[in-house]
Structure formats: C-alpha cells, structure tokens
Design brief:
Largest sheet: 2 strands, antiparallel
Protein name: Antitermination protein
Distance between the termini: 10 Å
Shape: elongated
Number of domains: 3
CATH architecture of the largest domain: Orthogonal Bundle
Order of helices and strands: HHHHHEEEEEHEHH
Number of strands: 6
Strand content: 5-15%
GO biological process, one term: regulation of DNA-templated transcription
Strand order of the largest sheet: 1-4
CATH class of the largest domain: Mainly Alpha
Helix content: 40-55%
Organism: Escherichia coli 4.0967
GO molecular function: DNA binding
Mean pLDDT: 84
InterPro entries: Antitermination_sf, Antitermntn, HSP_DnaJ_Cys-rich_dom_sf
C-alpha cells in the first residue's frame, strides 16, 4: 500500500466508523492495519512521515516538528562558510532556511497564498482626482439658456476633489490570493505549436517555465532577502556560491525523508 493512500483514512466520507470493512477479501487491509502501519513507520522514519503529513495538511504539529528537526539537522551539516557568515545569528538563519525549504517541499499547483498587496480583499485604495460642480448662487434660471449675454455655466463652480476609491488589485487581479500554478495550468506541459503545424496533430512539450512540475518554485531571491534580515551584509555572490546550494540540499533532504517513509510504510502493509 502506498503512503499517499493512507490519507483517505484521515477524512472518512461516510458516517460508518469501525475497523472492519465491507469487502470480503481476507487480504484487504483494515483501518486498524493502516493505523498500525503508520505507527510502525513513525517509529522507523519519524522525520519523513512527519514531513509528509505536514505537507498533506493532516497535522500542523507534524509540520512544526519536521521544520524544527530539519533546522537542527541543518545546524549539524552546515558548511564552514555558512557558519562563518551567520555568526551569532546562525540558529535563526538555519530556522529560516528550514521554513523556506519546507514551503518549497510542500508546494504544488494547488498552493495559494493571501495577496500581500490587498491583504486578501481583492481591492486596493487609490487616489483619484474628481471634478465636482456646485451652484453657490443657485441653479441657472430658465431664461439663461435663451439669453445671449449669459450662459447657464456662469452659475456653475467646478472644483477638483481628491478621493480615495477602491480599485481591483493589480497583483492578484481581484482574486485576493496568489496561486503557485504555472501558466500551463498545472499540467507541466504545453502545446508545441511548431511541431503541431509540421505534423498536423497536437504535440506537447515540457513547460519551460516550471520544468514540468506544474507550479512555480519559490524564488531564491526571496530566501536571500529573508536571510538578510539577520545578516544585512550577505552579498549576492556569497549567497549564490555557499547558501543557495545548501538551501537546495535541505529541500532534497525532505524529499528523501518522504521516500524513506514511503518505503517503510509499504513494507509494513505488505504481508
């Protein structure tokens, strides 16, 4: 049984609660078997299982535990140049890297965050100059439109007023959230127009923007700016040479931990 299949036991679709199933096959796993396999996997690969459950949104506690465990592991394996550059802020820097690494690890095409520009409202205030008319001496009499000496506009007084009006947010286009889904629609592939016109049938190619993942990754510049809060003099060259490869290594550690947990779960459920 795959580890992804265990998620359905955390969100039952019916009112029936029990450890027996409707199927008559003796080889079918029951809910008790799955929970026992999860406990066995947690005992052998606690980090990978916690990272997976935190990624799936099953447990916020598992997510926090995975981030803290990754930060402690990062402090143990950090390169010498990273330790030297961090100085007294080494612990905080490792925690920030662990948080960003987990966010990148748990990112998918369905990931969305609240828009930072409009705070999720979809509208942003904008100043706009509006011309308003007033009649300080009353409105023009009826005969003013027929007179050649005066005009109805002589009774009008125009003033410019600056007002703050809500307009659609330019960042999220009024949605209130920013999606990580790529322009390929999360499929990871796009239509190759040149090959399609040559062959006469639809030909697809890997999306160059997301490299086939279906979503846009977190920009390393955002991680760099977060680290600069604790290390203001961290230059771009030092970040690209020493810090960025270490950050990418932390993301790989999370994926590796999930693979180990999936392997142990399959062993526990195979009999």
């Amino acid at each position: 049984m795959k580890l992804e299949a265990s998620l359905k036991y955390f969100s039952p679709q019916g009112m029936y609660i029990g450890d027996d199933v409707k199927g008559t096959s003796p080889e079918r796993l029951t809910g008790t078997d799955v929970m026992a396999a999860i406990g066995t996997t947690s005992n052998r690969e606690r980090f990978g299982l916690a990272a997976f459950f935190g990624k799936a949104g099953i447990s916020k506690t598992d997510e926090q535990m995975a981030v803290q465990a990754l930060a402690r592991h990062a402090m143990e394996i950090a390169p010498k140049n990273v330790r030297k550059a961090a100085g007294g802020e080494f612990g905080w820097c490792m925690l920030v890297l662990a948080q960003f690494a987990f966010a990148e690890y748990s990112r998918s095409a369905a990931t969305s965050v609240t828009c930072h520009s409009c705070s999720g409202t979809g509208l942003t205030p904008r100043k706009q100059v509006i011309r308003k008319v007033s009649y300080p001496w009353g409105k023009a009499p009826y005969w003013a439109s027929r007179s050649r000496a005066v005009r109805p506009s002589d009774w009008e007084k125009w003033t410019e007023v600056t007002e703050v009006v809500p307009v659609v947010c330019d960042v999220c286009k009024g949605k209130g959230v920013i999606s990580a889904r790529c322009r390929c629609g999360g499929k990871g592939e796009v239509l190759d127009r040149k090959a399609t016109s040559e062959r006469g049938v639809p030909v697809f190619k890997i999306c160059e923007r997301c490299s086939g993942k279906g979503f846009v990754s977190i920009k390393s510049a955002n991680v760099h700016r977060a680290i600069q809060i604790y290390i203001p003099d961290l230059h771009q060259s030092s970040w690209s040479r020493n810090w960025k490869p270490f950050y990418e290594k932390l993301v790989d550690i999370l994926h590796q931990g999930e693979r180990h947990a999936a392997r142990e779960f399959e062993k526990a459920t195979s009999y």
